[in-house]
Give the backbone structure.
Amino acid sequence: MAEAKTAVEVVRYTVENGVAWIRLNRPETMNAVNGALRRALADSVKQADRDEAVKVVVVTGEGRAFCAGADVREFQSREGALEGIQQDYEFLLSRLWSMAKPTIAAMNGVAAGIGASLALVCDLRYAVPQASFVEAFVKIGLTVDGGATWLLPRLLGSAKALELFYTGDPLNAAEAERLGVVNRVVEPERLEPTVRELAERLAAGPSHALGAIKRSVGYAMNATLEESMEFEFHLQGVQMRRVDFKEGVAAFLEKRQPRFQGGGSGPPA
Amino acid sequence: MIPVMEYENVLVDLDGPVGVVTLNRPRVLNALSPVLVGELNDALGRLDADPEVRAAVLTGGPRVFAAGADIGDMSERSPVEQLQRDQTGRWGPVAAFTKPLIAAVNGYALGGGCELALMCDLIVAGDSARFGQPEINLGIIPGAGGTQRWPRTVGKYVAMEVNLGGAPITAQRAYQLGLVNKVVPAEVTIEVARGIAHQLAAKAPVALRLAKESVNRALETSLQEGLAVERKNFYFLFATEDQKEGMRAFLEKRKAQFAGR
């Protein structure tokens, strides 16, 4: 039996300047998601969320694909294992969605099925011109999963989402940018530098405030305007007690750049 | 005012007219040992008896409300030992507290911890809170009101799901179901609960007590009898100084100062 890559190797996980880079690393399969990759992704995301030194999370793929979706070789046994797979996906995607840190997908190529969900669940998406979203479940007689029915209509409306789901046709990077699904399309050699620059800029920012913003937006998705305003107000009260707010105000008054301490996403000291 | 109370498993903090009781066994996720329950009952009994205290907050602190009973302590007990200890029957003083009691729930409120929250009058939940009755997973069922207070609060079907399935529900779902009054950022749960307690503490204490009693009666009796209870309580309040003060202040367009008489 050919040696399987260990859970550590199928994802390359590094932390640089406050940014956790989660790199899907099965380029020979276009980063198709098998059990090992699923678990390694979940572990990496959990680690990035727990690590106070991590302020921003980037997800990207090695090779020419971002992630080609579920590993078809696992598909034939999929029925029996569906429940376990669902739990893994639910953990991975909901953790990325709910963690109080900015998440960015650096889309180096195609993102299909669960790979598309992985990109869509991130807060921001930067993509190369060759990148695309593919929701081709229907082409093998399946319905859409991986949270895409929740994520995609929120980003581009139900009519466009349903068109993509019904036809299985890809959504290319330029169109995705026009529809607001991708924040920016950049040339391949500029993808990593662009994302790195943004991620490190956010990592140097007031990380509690960024986390609070993400929590408020997440809360508002299930709440009324009045409820959301109350939630915002409470988090603002917490922010106003933090040193980063004092520093921000002082820097503003002194007409200089603020030096934020950030410091995790927990409550004020 | 009563002297500061010293307990091992419970902290009591008096904040003007508001008593704040904090379950304080964080290393075991505030597991509800017999000692803790005894101290909690004692603390609430004293707060209830203190005329200067007008409302109370019950919390488990910033990380967890209470993750249930001490299973290690319970696993080898016989039914007779359980009956003699009657741990689940010793919650009387919490449920019988006559002043507004507000639960501030962060993290897990499971098993007895969830039942304890359900004994309170209002529940403020942090956005990370989880409510559940996982007893079924241990081959038992809730013993301190879980099968009774859930259906009275959220109806039969969700109560069945929670009590039979054993999986906890999120703060937002609990809010949608009417189990929770507010979902707030976990950093401010206790602060918000204190704020509500202070608002209630400024109201007429006798009216608060009879309003609480009347609402609780609604869950235990027929509509006709409940209406009769409400009506008697309503008439009774016209014998209080606070009713005179409240109505006078309203007519004079000023804020009422209630004396609790």
Observations:
- Chain B is about 45% helix and 15% strand.
- The mean pLDDT of chain B is 92.
- Chain B touches chain A at residues 62, 127, 172, 182-188, 192 (CB under 8 Å).
- The radius of gyration of chain B is 19 Å.
